[in-house]
Specification:
The protein has 316 residues and is an alpha+beta fold. The chain is built from six helices and 20 strands. The strands form seven sheets. The protein has a five-stranded antiparallel β-sheet with strand order 6-7-15-11-12. Helix 2 packs antiparallel against helix 4. The longest helix is centred in the last third of the chain and has 19 residues. The radius of gyration is 20 Å and the shape is globular.
Length: 316
């Protein structure tokens, strides 16, 4: 395991930080180990200085958004975790039919605010918990649409601290993916269309109602655990494949394949992050054995759970 990072390496940068911070409370699962350093830059300049220092010193750094699709292993994270929660990274500004938003802004708030402005396009993302930066990174979406088509331009920072602005046609958005893999997003401008605020409000409510009916929203989870396989591999979604493998209700420790929606892995009180990681591995193994499809995780995992030859807690 990589040795812990001493905060002295960034003390001269003037960036506010905390050392040895538990990350679990900052994620939707509510579990997981600590980060060596949790940094809160207050500007692009501070973020650039931090990224540059980490790059020069060979220190890994990560960006923590809303924590909705993140699972932190119990061993924690060696390196610097960045939280873009300063006002400079959460502003929402309207320019005619475009809206420029900081990467740290809450996606749910953006959806509601643009609806109130009478600007349509992002209402399809109602009910998806994410920061704007995280939503862009994974091109978040669902049956109603994705974030990519509304993007006009992006500002992002490389691993070494350099800032770039890209137009929409310079970025490729795919299924739960974006062509910008490294660095972090600083802001995005969305090109939207004028619409009736009341019509948009009703669309948002309808999407929320559908999600509440079909997903275990009241349980601790990170949303969909797995990506749907490519259509050339299977015409069935991940949830259907898991269900057909007879895995609904399967548990490892406090983690369970949701009986409501098979692509959600929930965690009961007292369960740990490594329970979820072991269950993810078990589900992938069982689905591959049942139908020959190897599922890929949609939930992002930081750190690794120990690999045990036998899962004693497994039960159906």
């Amino acid at each position: 395991m990589r040795p812990r990072i001493d905060p002295v390496v960034i003390e001269d940068l003037g960036v506010r930080y905390e050392a040895d911070v538990p990350l679990g409370p900052l994620t939707w699962y509510g579990v997981g180990g600590p980060a060596d350093i949790l940094a809160h830059p207050s500007s692009d300049r501070e973020m650039g200085a931090l990224a540059s220092r980490c790059f020069e010193a060979g220190i890994p750094w990560y960006v923590l958004g809303s924590g909705a699709n993140l699972l932190v292993a119990e061993e924690g994270v060696r390196g610097v975790v960045v939280k873009l929660n300063d006002d400079s990274f959460t502003r929402i500004q309207r320019f005619s039919q475009c809206v420029t938003v900081g990467a740290g802004a809450d996606l749910a708030k953006l959806v509601i605010e643009t609806g109130k402005m009478g600007l349509g396009g992002l209402e399809v993302l109602a009910g998806i918990p994410a920061s704007v930066g995280g939503a862009l990174r994974m091109n978040c979406g669902g049956k109603y649409g994705e974030i990519g088509p509304s993007v006009h331009s992006l500002s992002y920072m490389s691993d070494s601290g350099d800032i770039f602005t890209l137009k929409r046609d310079q970025v490729e958005f795919g299924y739960r993916s974006c062509s910008i893999k490294a660095g972090l997003f600083l802001s995005a401008t969305f090109e939207l269309s004028e619409d009736d605020p009341e019509v948009l409000r009703q669309r948002i409510l309808d999407i929320f109602a559908y999600k509440k009916k079909t997903q275990p929203l009241a349980s601790a989870s990170a949303g969909c655990a797995f990506k749907n396989p490519p259509t050339e591999v299977s015409d069935k979604g991940a949830g259907q494949l898991i269900d057909e493998a007879g895995l609904k209700g399967l548990t490892v420790g406090g983690a369970q394949v949701s009986p409501v929606h098979a692509n959600f892995i929930t965690l009961a009180s007292g369960g740990g992050a490594n329970d979820v990681i072991r269950l993810i591995r078990l589900v992938k193994k069982r689905v591959q054995e049942h139908c020959g499809v190897m599922l890929a995780e949609e939930v992002v995992i930081w750190g690794n759970a120990p690999i045990t030859p036998k899962i004693e807690e497994e039960k159906n």
